[in-house]
Amino acid sequence: MNYKAWFQCSDGCDETYPLTEVIYRCKKCGGLLEVQHDIDVLKQRSAADWKSLFEHRYMRTQYPYGSGVWGKKELVCPNINDDNIISMYEGGTNLFWAERFGAQLGLSDLWIKQCGNSHTGSFKDLGMTVLVSMVKQIMAESGDLRAVMCASTGDTSASLAAYASAAGIPAIILLPKEKVTREQLIQPIANGALTLSLETDFDGCMEIVQKLSARKDFYLANSINSIRIEGQKTISIEIVQQFNWEVPDWIIIPGGNLGNVSALGLGFLMMLELGIIDKLPRIACAQAERANPLYRSYQTGFTEFHAITAQSTQATAIQIGNPVSIHRAIRTLRRFDGIVDQATEVELANAAARADRTGLFNCPHTGVALAVLIKMVERKQILPDDRVIVISTANGLKFPDFKVAYHNFTPGEPPPRYLNAPIELEADYEGVLKQISAHLDA
């Protein structure tokens, strides 16, 4: 079938643009653009046939359809030729049944979607495969682009650099100096990207990169570009597929620039329209207390929004005070009867450490979501039999300083609640046995 997609203004005017045009906002009203699909054509295939097709492709070896993203190509970006697709078989990440952690909270059906088990260690790969593939398509058709660029708090830059490197496309990265981990910083460097460390925060980097993107020879890779959202929305489809096409009751997701919130909603809404599912989950967006502009807006019933200056937080990837996808996210949360809550620095660190003791190894941003989960259970917003999915956005191995600092507290200060510091002993059998026995008998 002749599946089609295009850019369309999200502010309600009728302006449309081809996906191969280098454009991010409507020329008529300045509104952000969204990718629209020809739903009537998509509906010509039955829901049962879509499910069968996706199951047939899922995690197989026929390139690129074994990818968790490109296995849903018709619903993502049908315009890209297969030979221009740059894929590292992103998606297909596991659902961790958090049985022990859930039991502690009184939940029997708690799952962690491990999006950090991916090529560059974060969910950003889901969107970046689509964006870089589109850049390759544009370059093949016109040859006018010279580079692809982004501002980043770490994970976006890692993903862009890897995919651009695989495509042979120059990448330019703007990072806030000393506000990303060493592990995140080395990823774009290792992949050969031009990495610029700026004396500012993420919002300052974003301001500069948007000015640079006004040039038609640079392509913007931040989530203001809705091409990325198309890949990220496959999280929704994959979760439902992994549960035999059943919809969970709640999904909790950390929110910074908020593209992930709108992407999550888009995936579910598309499945609903195609008859693949017959209901929607509720969505909870979790923010760090020190970077909480969406939470503040939620407190007003979304009647007001004011950008803030984000304060330093351990959840560095969501340390954003002026999210570019704010209006998309609010629209999504309204449609999904969603809520927004926040976590303090102590709450997010304790929640991550507590869950780690049940077999996980959480990044600080997942800690924010887990802290909000705990609050929602305590308030009885989440009930014991609810199926709950927490989106883990990145691999905990990218944040070793966060993990080490928690278990290496300063003497004289109150120890963290779940402290498990190493115990130094002489190399003596009796002394070691005594320590082990004391621990097991405690």
Give a brief description.
The protein is an alpha/beta fold and about 450 residues long. It is built from 17 helices and 13 strands. A six-stranded mixed β-sheet has the order 4-5-13-10-11-12, with helices on both faces.
Secondary structure layout:
Blueprint: E1 5-9, E2 16-17, E3 33-37, H1 39-42, H2 47-57, H3 73-76, E4 95-97, H4 99-105, E5 110-114, H5 124-141, E6 147-151, H6 155-167, E7 171-176, H7 182-190, E8 194-198, H8 202-212, E9 218-220, H9 227-232, H10 234-242, E10 250-254, H11 259-273, E11 282-288, H12 293-298, H13 326-335, E12 339-343, H14 345-356, H15 364-378, E13 388-392, H16 400-406, H17 429-441
Parallel strand pairs: 5-13, 6-7, 6-9, 7-8, 10-11, 10-13, 11-12
Antiparallel strand pairs: 1-2, 1-3, 4-5
Helix pairs in contact: 5-6, 6-7, 10-11, 11-13, 14-15
How would you explain this protein's 3D organization?
- Helix content is 38%, strand content 14%.
- The chain has 17 helices and 13 strands.
- The mean pLDDT is 95.
- By secondary structure, it is α/β, with parallel strands linked by helices.
- It has a domain of 202 residues: Rossmann fold (3-Layer(aba) Sandwich), CATH 3.40.50.1100.
- Strands 4-5-13-10-11-12 form a six-stranded mixed sheet, with helices on both faces.
- The helical percent reads 25-40%
Largest sheet: 6 strands, mixed
Strand order of the largest sheet: 4-5-13-10-11-12
What does the overall shape look like? globular
Q: What keywords describe this structure?
A:
442 residues, alpha/beta, Rossmann fold, 6-stranded mixed sheet, 4-stranded parallel sheet, 17 helices, 14% strand
